[in-house]
Amino acid sequence: MHYVYVLECADGTYYTGYTTDVERRVAEHDAGEGAKYTRGRTPVELRHVERYDTRSAAMSREYEIKSLSRAAKERLVAGGDAD
Question: Where is the GIY-YIG domain (predicted)?
Answer without folding.
Answer: 1-75
